[in-house]
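# step 3/5: fold
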Amino acid sequence: MVYNELITKTKPSFYNRFCEFKNRFRIVLRTKWSISIICFLLLALAAIMFAFNIFYKKETSFLLDDKNEIVFDEADNPILVTKYFRAWSDITKTSESLRIYLFSPIAKILVSISIPIAGYAIQITTQNKLSSPSTLGYVPASILAYICTLAINPTNFYLTYVFGFIFSSFVILIKLVLQHTDSTNNKFKPVLIGFAISALISTIGVLISILKPNLVNTSVIWTGELANAFEWEKLYVSAPLILACTLVFFILSPKLKIMQKDFILAKTLGINTKAVYWTVAVTTAILCISTITISSPVFLLGLIIPNIVKVFFDRHDPLFVFCVCIIFSLALNQTSLFISINHNFSTNLLIAIIAFVVLLFMMRKRT
């Protein structure tokens, strides 16, 4: 009897075995080799999806002979041929075809290398895991700028930058005023303020879409699927701004690393944390305006990608998170673009599903 009790006590349960497996998996996952393999696979996926977004096209047509006449089988039925890829000559045939097939994949690359980095930089400076360009109001402000441009003069895309800077400056000014009203900053909640600003901006956007239904679809406010015109001029303006802002974040990474560990230590070492905070805020605003002009916004990209990287690899160094975020985002954006083009599945809906899982995990860890 005693022997049987000892066996039941020492025999591990299924839950204990699962916990042991999970702990071992985490240890293996966070080794340098595992990180390198995962990053390599994600880069390969991003490259494959980038090529598919350019070349893939399922098209069924009649089989033609040398005289361009339809070929029939023995039952006198026309023979159908299915092609899955377009030729490079079809892509480069005209400047119009080149723009149609290359613009979106290139735009997604620029979004991937910038927004997740901005998201993690904001999370460090605000000391809040839920901070992102979307939750702090910068993406809604940029969307409103784009909608105003469509309502006033759709052909002049430069107005998007003008309105974007005005609305983003308004968002930053509100936060600056509210932050200075509390000397200790203990009650300053950037995310809550960002949600309030986003709600206000969305309301204004809905009113504009109601007043201008022919130019602006009301669903744009909620889905974020903007009717972007593929114009190389937009890319010529936005690409240098995006690359410059991304470089700023990498330059700030040593200071952000210290701030991520300890704000008091950062101040002791002479780092002007307020200057870093507002530099990140302004740079993020510029990024959001530049990316909105060339691509529909992916609302929660700057929120979930940094948190996925931190949860998966348990590393918080900004330079590491920046680089891995870019790789994750490239794979995700190129894959979601392929799904969106070929299956009419909203990119933001896919991101929302992933975000739901990530946020549930974050809430579970807090409890």
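# step 4/5: annotate
Residues 108-366 form a domain with the ABC transporter involved in vitamin B12 uptake, BtuC fold (CATH 1.10.3470.10).
# step 5/5: archive (pending)
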